[in-house]
Design brief:
Strand order of the largest sheet of chain A: 10-1-2-11-12
Order of helices and strands of chain A: EEEEEEHHEEEEHHEEH
Structural class of chain A: alpha+beta
Oligomer: homodimer
CATH superfamily of chain A: Aminohydrolase, N-terminal nucleophile (Ntn) domain
Strand content of chain A: 25-35%
Shape of chain A: globular
Radius of gyration of chain A: 19 Å
CATH class of chain A: Alpha Beta
Distance between the termini of chain A: 42 Å
Chain lengths: ~240, ~240
């Protein structure tokens, strides 16, 4: 299982991803689900992966190889003129990989399917955020839905919906994401620490934060502990039902 | 969609169920998903339904008809000597209905499948609570898992897991259930008010509360409003992340 979230804030983009991969409960391992590309002054792009691990790793490797094998005729993640074009490149690569391994099954039904969250900023465009489906098509986050989740999305969604505010600081956004991950990790054994954080501040064309929260991270554990306490206190302050 | 929860507390059993049924977003209706049977001084039983509506209604009608057509050789929901036996009757009836309508499909994969939560007290037994699968087999709630959910379970689960305490009062339990339903209703348009409440106090062999929370219920709306406020305040009191 996987839990990935990306927020599109006024200040820029924030990405968080867990690192747990499992092929059954007896085959659990830790993998990096974040890929990123930076060209100082030109672009910063982050890709979060959910789904079949062979597919997501192959897509990321192809994106990398094609970015460095200069084919001037076809755009790569490093030469795309816009984030829309970059999302198209990722979507086409994903569809190519999924249909090559399971050509007779629709990509959405394929056991080798995957979903990506792609965000970043290219040139003078504003930062943009996309959710890319196994078929290779994608949707973009707007003002009404300034975030995307993938993987085990439900446990951690209510607090995101209640508290997400596009004007919030990166510091408050990381707190909110830690709360969202805490609810998910408590509920689904297929999602766990460490979790990876990436931040792309608007108009800086760089990834300003690359940080991993390990299992013993004092901040995450404090948020987890205090959030649990605060929820129980908040519940106790609500009026009991009166029969 | 559906959301049903039942709690097994020291004081007895508490059941809550939404009333929304939909066959596509253009075909939404309101149905009662609660059935109950009472024999004063002998038994009180509540059944919550999730899944295919034709199946759940047929099962409930068969349980009713067979309870009143006195066949002394086969136990009915009104003559079963234990809640285990009652769960067996419900499970067998469910399997019978599902396999009669889709004999070539395993019940768990059938579009006509359903899941029941059955709880109650028979005779001198303690109150018991069961989750009955489309195959007709079932599991029982114990001290380690004193509740069952069915339908859209994920959004409302984190608070149940955090705050449920077998020693809690019915008044506090209804508050907790309202919070759990509020998170679910906000997230899934297939779950909505009105919601139905049933309470079986231990050793009284009766349903002490049969209440419906309508859309304009002042208590539910107060909990919903104050819970939202309390969550945002609790989040704001947690320490922001420090890069």
């Amino acid at each position: 299982m996987t839990y990935c979230v990306a927020l599109k804030l006024d200040r820029g983009l924030v990405f968080m991803s867990d690192t747990r991969s499992n092929a059954g409960v007896d085959d659990i391992s830790q993998v990096l689900k974040v890929n990123s590309w930076e060209v100082p002054g030109d672009r910063a792009i982050v890709l979060l992966s959910a789904g079949n691990l062979a597919t997501t790793q192959t897509v990321a490797s192809l994106l990398d190889e094609r970015a460095h094998a200069a084919d001037p005729l076809s755009p790569s993640i490093l030469t795309a003129h816009s984030m829309f074009q970059a999302a198209t490149v990722v979507g086409n690569t994903l569809r190519e990989v999924v249909t090559s391994i399971s050509p007779l099954i629709p990509p959405s039904a394929s056991p080798f399917g995957a979903t990506f969250i792609l965000g970043g900023q290219v040139g003078t465009e504003a930062p943009r955020l996309f959710l890319i489906y196994p078929e290779g098509n994608f949707i973009e986050a707007g003002d009404d839905n300034p975030f995307f989740q993938s993987g085990e999305t439900k446990y951690g969604r209510p607090m995101l919906v209640r508290a997400l505010d596009r004007a919030m600081t990166f510091e408050a956004a990381v707190k909110l994401l830690c709360v969202s991950f805490d609810s998910t990790i408590r509920a689904n054994a297929g999602v766990d620490l460490p979790i990876d954080l990436r931040v792309i501040p608007a108009n800086e064309h760089r990834i300003s934060e690359k940080r991993r929260f390990e299992r013993d991270d004092p901040y995450f554990n404090r948020v987890s502990r205090e959030w649990s306490k605060a929820l129980n206190e908040a519940l106790s302050l609500l009026p009991d039902f009166n029969f």
